[in-house]
Amino acid sequence: MPSYTDRIVVIGAGPVGLCLSLALAQADLKVCLVEALGDDNFLEQVPRAGTNHPATLEMYDRIGLYEKLEPRGIIAPVFHYWDRHETRRIAAFDHSALKDDTRFPYVLQCERIKIVEEAMKMAKAHPNIDLRLNTEFVSFEQDADGVIARVVNADGHEETIDGRYIVSGEGARSIVRKELGIAFEGFTYDDRTLNIEVAYDFTQHGYAHRNYISDPDEWSNLFHWKGPPDRWRVHFPTDPKADENALTRPEVLQAQMQKFLPTGKPFDIIGSNLYVVHQRVADKFRVGRAILAGDSAHVNSPIGAMGMNSGVHDAINLADKLIAITRGEADESVLDRYERQRRHVAIAHTQAQTIRNKRLLAERDLAVRKRNHNELRRTAEDPALARKFLLRTALFESLREAEAIA
Ligand SMILES: Cc1cc2nc3c(=O)[nH]c(=O)nc-3n(C[C@H](O)[C@H](O)[C@H](O)COP(=O)(O)OP(=O)(O)OC[C@H]3O[C@@H](n4cnc5c(N)ncnc54)[C@H](O)[C@@H]3O)c2cc1C
User: Fold this and answer.
1) pTM score of the predicted model
2) Ligand 1: does its nearest atom lie under 6 Å from the Cβ of 117?
């Protein structure tokens, strides 16, 4: 029987792998964190998540990350729903309704790339984290006592890394999940989403830093990020049959923006990309000593900003359980509870809510649209209903529900 090093092998230095590694290292556990990207290309990843909900800010704060992120982000207490069809605001929700529920009654608009940059600096500085950049995880095996991961290291050589557990923070294409033969059930939307990044001050038109915009023909999202230069991200659905190059030609992007907000002057378009949206949850989050967290376990539409947030919640939940096992305060059955809790959240909250969010924005039936909008307006205007709504969107409800799962 091989002897295993007392450490956790974490694959992937995305927000999930980094938050998990920091939480473990700060509790005196040893971590080997494996990341395919290197210092030369780590910050060249495409724009993705950026809205950080209050419940997640509490977790960042616990691992010392919040104070690094706040100066790089925008504090956004209010978010809006708009009706693009009628060019009017439907409802404004103000997180200050949660002032007695959290120290962070706002979302922080701070992009994933800034989060991983700051968390990576902390990981590099932590003596309990053995960081392997430029190292591609290839496969793994496990027995009752430990795991062995095979990687191709920065010099291009095959190497093995052993430990007590392996956690996949590799993202949606998780090799760990595939090697374990875990099904990733769900569906993929036909239409790809077009993301356009623009330097323009949308607040002059009454928009908040974060806006969900419904339209039967072309729903949209509009989010503000701190610069320099300050940028706004605008999302649009696209024709599933359209050619990718045709959708992202500069003149097409300009026309798209002018259709959204006719200013008569060209927009300063900083970038664009197209992405495919999946709604999937892994059948299992754990097999023996191999555990899935974040996008490796669940992927969802970004409408509602729940993917990275719920992934960070996985990371902190899992960290507490691995810490308790290592300290002898719990047995391995707590890992089954991790699966029960976080899989429930992925299905009943993240999937359900993001599917509802997209349906709400894209609804074509005018009577249903009107009913939905009236309900949103009523909810925002009633303090008790607004607080309940915000406890759900700020992800506290999902955490409370998970806590009640034995
Ligand atoms: C346009 C868009 C907007 C979004 N907006 C939001 C939002 O506002 N809020 C929100 O909560 N979520 C949002 N999401 C979702 C969010 O980006 C993801 O849920 C989140 O990044 C998942 O984090 P992760 O750490 O699990 O995986 P990832 O972020 O995918 O990180 C995986 C890491 O693993 C590394 N890796 C992969 N394979 C290997 C390997 N074989 N060996 C070594 N390393 C490997 C990768 O290089 C990467 O660093 C958005 C997504 C998109 C596409």
Assistant:
1) 0.96
2) no
